[in-house]
C-alpha cells in the first residue's frame, strides 16, 4: 500500500480536500493548462464554463493541495440531459443502447493533476473521493479516445466504454464515453 494509514494523505504532504472551485478557478485552470494543454484563449472560455457549472445543482469539486498550492483537482455534477455535454453524447450512447446511463449518473467533468505530481495516486484519490461523496449509483465521463494514463486509470476503477469516436463540436480529437457503477472499484 502506497500511503499506509492515511487514505487522504500523500507523499510531500499533499492533501485531498473539498475545493471551492469558483474561488480557485484560475489556479485550477493553470493546472489544467499544463496537464492537458490549454492555450490562453481556451483558458478564458473554460473559465466561464467552470463558473457556470459550479452553479448547477449537486456540482462538487475536490483539490489536491501541498503547502497552499493546488496541484490537482476534480469536479463534476449529476448529469442533466439538457446540459450541452449530455446532448452531444446522447445519440452515440443511444446507438449502443446505453443512453440510460445519462440518468442517475454523476458526470466527471474535469480531472487534472500537475505533471510534477502525476503517477503518485492523486488522480485516483481525487476521483474516488468525489464519487464517494455523491448519491448517484453510477458515474460517466468522456476522455480522449486513446490509450492514455487517464483511460488506464478509469478502466482500473471499473469504467467501461459506452461509446467511442465521439465527436464534440470544436474538439479536434474523438472521445470515448465511459461509465462505472459506484462506488468505484478499489484495488
Ligand atoms: C489522468 C490524470 C489525472 C491521472 O492522475 P495521476 O495522479 O497521475 O493518476 P494516479 O497516480 O492516480 O494513477 C492512477 C493510474 O493511472 C495510470 N497512469 C498514471 N500515469 C501513467 C503513465 N504515465 N503511464 C501509464 N499509466 C499511467 C495507471 O493506470 C495508474 O494506475 P496505478 O496506480 O496502478 O499505477 C493525469 O495523468 C493527468 O492530469 N493527465 C493529463 C490531463 C488529463 O488527461 N486529464 C483527464 C482528462 S479526461
SSE blueprint and pairings:
Blueprint: E1 9-10, E2 14-18, H1 25-37, H2 40-53, E3 60-66, E4 69-78, H3 84-95, E5 105-113, H4 122-132, E6 138-144, H5 149-156, E7 160-166, E8 175-181
Helix pairs in contact: 1-2
Bound molecules: coenzyme A.
Coenzyme A binds at residues 35-36, 111-113, 118-124, 143, 148-150, 152-153, 156.
Describe the structure.
The chain is globular. It is 31% helix and 29% strand. The chain has five helices and eight strands. The protein has 187 residues and is an alpha+beta fold. A hairpin with a 3-residue loop joins strand 1 (9-10) and strand 2. The protein has a single domain (9-181), classed as Aminopeptidase, CATH 3.40.630. The model is unreliable at 1-7 (pLDDT under 50). The structure holds coenzyme A (COA). Coenzyme A binds next to helix 1, strand 5, helix 4 and helix 5. InterPro entries: Acyl_CoA_acyltransferase, GNAT_dom. This is GNAT family N-acetyltransferase. It comes from Streptomyces hokutonensis. Residues 14-183 form the N-acetyltransferase domain.
Quick summary:
This protein is an alpha+beta fold. Helices cover 31% and strands 29% of the residues. It has a single domain, classed as Gcn5-related N-acetyltransferase (GNAT) (Aminopeptidase, 3-Layer(aba) Sandwich).
